[in-house]
Design a protein that fits this description.
By secondary structure, this protein is an alpha+beta fold. It has helices at 46-58, 128-138, 155-163, 165-170, 177-194, 223-233, 238-241, 265-280, 295-303; strands spanning 3-10, 17-22, 33-34, 36-39, 61-76, 79-91, 104-110, 140-141, 145-149, 198-203, 209-217, 250-256, 286-291, 307-317, 324-335. The strands form 4 sheets. Strands 8-9-10-11-12 form a 5-stranded antiparallel sheet, with helices on both faces. Strands 4-1-6-5 form a 4-stranded mixed sheet, sandwiched between helices.
């Protein structure tokens, strides 16, 4: 039977993940960068082991387990470990970890730009820990939601979301499982290549699926992108007309299960997306667009402080007509850093 292990992914105020380097004389994985964690001892629960490992390896105290973010198995010298990884919050001075004597000799806070540090010394080329750290840096926690970057593991939830009648109406129909897997893989690849894409949203208290949303980069050469760029160039608002949107081409969006609507979740997702775009990506402008008659989404855009800048045409439904049309009218909204954001209803 595999030996059970736990991993603690601790973040600072900039959402960087704490790592420390294993001492060069360690028998197992010497000299590599690793997350906090270790084996679950006899009689311990994973939660008890997590608290013990955090205290032993850093001197900090476990405050809250925010979420389980990974579960996987790995093999070293023929022994299988079954690892459960958690995103946690700790109490203590994050600038003064207490490295465990003889076991770790350095520490670092790792953001998206330093992920390859986790590959140093890994002769087997195993990227799993590197990818879990990447996921941990991209997760965002709002007052009520946990926003996870879309990956293959979210395919079943994407199928469920797009089976919702209202979501299927606005997004061109339900997704088969193979479509959901393909789209999830593509979204995850965009996180790697572009540093941004959509999140899957879960209720922090119950763990229930809420929907998806966040930012993505629009295709530079698409007809929709060109239309939006032209609208912004003609905007009377100098912060939008100066061409600041075109380098990043960030588009904000959301889709919620019918059971989760009218609770302010779309505004909460939108606010997190704007924060990620302006604070993490240093964007100069962000757009959102929706069918002209999608009054619910337009109201969210306005609550987020986004301004209507005009209309474009794209494939979509037209009010009062059946099916998807090639030239449906879409309302375009935009905002720049510092624009006011209203509270969610």
């Amino acid at each position: 039977m595999p030996r059970l292990c736990v991993g603690a992914f601790i973040r600072d105020e900039r959402n960087r993940v704490y790592l420390h380097r294993r001492s060069p004389h360690r028998r197992l994985l010497p000299g590599i960068w690793d997350a906090v964690g270790g084996h679950v001892e006899p009689g311990e629960t994973p939660e008890v082991a997590l608290a013990r490992e955090i205290e032993e390896e850093t001197g900090w105290c476990l405050a809250t387990i925010e979420a389980q973010i990974a579960e996987w198995e790995w093999d070293v010298d023929g022994e299988i470990r079954h690892e459960i990884d958690y995103l946690v919050r700790v109490d203590g001075d994050l600038q003064r970890p207490r490295l465990e004597a003889g076991k770790h000799d350095a520490y670092a806070w790792i953001g998206p730009g330093e992920l390859e540090l986790l590959m140093v010394g890994r002769a087997d080329g195993d990227r799993r820990l590197r990818d879990i750290v990447a996921k941990a840096t991209r997760i965002r926690l709002t007052d009520r939601l946990r926003l996870e970057p879309v990956g293959r593991e979210h395919a079943d939830d994407l199928v469920r979301l797009h089976a919702d009648a209202d979501v299927a109406f606005w997004y061109g129909g339900a997704w088969r499982h193979d479509e959901a897997v393909r789209n999830a893989v593509q979204m995850n690849a965009a996180w790697e290549t572009s540093g941004v894409h959509k999140w899957v949203a879960y209720d922090r208290r119950t763990g229930e699926l809420v929907g998806r949303g966040g930012l993505s980069r629009m295709d530079r050469d698409s007809a929709t992108t060109r239309q939006i760029a032209a609208l912004l160039r003609d905007s009377p608002d100098p912060s939008l007309a100066a061409g600041g949107w075109e380098p990043d081409r960030l588009e904000l969006g959301w889709a919620l299960l019918s059971s989760q609507r009218s609770r302010g979740f779309a505004t909460e997702i939108g606010r997190a997306g704007l924060s990620y775009g302006f604070d993490d990506l240093n964007a100069r402008a962000i757009v959102a667009y929706t069918e002209r008659h999608n009054v619910r989404s337009r109201a969210v855009m306005e609550r987020l402080g986004m301004r209507w800048v005009g209309e474009i045409v794209a494939p979509g439904p037209i009010e009062g007509q059946v099916g998807v049309h090639d030239s449906a009218p879409f309302a375009v909204y935009a905002t720049s850093p510092g624009a006011s954001v209203e509270s969610a209803d």
